[in-house]
């Protein structure tokens, strides 16, 4: 691959994504990939969520492999969980405030064989062990009070070891915006995974 070619598996940037958003991750997620979300939190936000799901069914509700839910009211925290067979598991609560209302952010979810590793604005926030098989995850959804400017999946360019979030800077320098045409059920750009071609 030439240095000027896009090494992203899928990357879409637009003036503002329509929230709630649900996009298909064509081919699913693979260990070593990084999901990048850039946006901002409105000053009146109470919460938002990023979900990695197994399909987009509403009835019965699709399983949620990773529910990442920053909350801003009362005591700020991040709630993580999984939904299986329409039942939520045990919540994992991080009493921290990695996001600030009224501020921009860059959220990175590093996909590992056994966990999701999350960083916000370059700082490690948490690690969430898989409760649902990674090979079932095929949809990314974003909802709540949040503005999203870019979403991307960056391919694993390293070896078979455990990649680290610090490796992202080198990958991002080679990521170029990918034009996305069309809408997914009227809720945002179409599929977010392409390999060497534009989305339909």
UniProtKB/TrEMBL annotation:
The keyword Ribosomal protein does not apply. Gene3D superfamilies: 2.60.120.200. Keywords: Lectin, Repeat. Residues 180-200 are annotated as: Disordered. Coiled coil: none annotated. Pfam families: Gal-bind_lectin. Residues 21-154 form the Galectin domain. It comes from the Eukaryota. InterPro entries: ConA-like_dom_sf (IPR013320), Galectin-like (IPR044156), Galectin_CRD (IPR001079). GO terms for cellular component: cytoplasm. GO terms for molecular function: carbohydrate binding. SUPFAM superfamilies: Concanavalin A-like lectins/glucanases. The keyword Protease does not apply. This is Galectin. The lineage of its organism: Eukaryota, Metazoa, Chordata, Craniata, Vertebrata.
């Amino acid at each position: 691959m030439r240095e000027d070619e896009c090494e992203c598996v899928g990357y879409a940037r637009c003036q503002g994504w329509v929230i709630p958003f649900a996009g298909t991750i064509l081919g699913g997620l693979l260990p070593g990939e990084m999901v990048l979300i850039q946006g901002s939190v409105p000053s009146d936000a109470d919460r938002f969520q990023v979900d990695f799901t197994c399909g987009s069914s509403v009835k019965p509700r699709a399983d949620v492999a990773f529910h990442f839910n920053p909350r801003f009211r009362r005591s700020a925290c991040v709630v993580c969980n999984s939904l299986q067979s329409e039942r939520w598991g045990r919540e994992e609560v991080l009493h921290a405030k990695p996001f600030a209302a009224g501020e921009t952010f860059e959220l990175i979810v590093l996909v590992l064989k056994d966990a999701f590793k999350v960083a916000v604005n370059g700082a490690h926030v948490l690690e969430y062990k898989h409760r649902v098989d990674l090979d079932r995850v095929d949809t990314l959804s974003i909802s709540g009070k949040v503005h999203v400017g870019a979403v991307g999946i960056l391919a694993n360019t390293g070896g078979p070891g455990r990649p680290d979030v610090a490796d992202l800077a080198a990958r991002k320098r080679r990521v170029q915006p990918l034009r996305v045409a069309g809408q997914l059920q009227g809720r945002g750009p179409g599929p977010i995974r392409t390999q060497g071609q534009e989305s339909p």
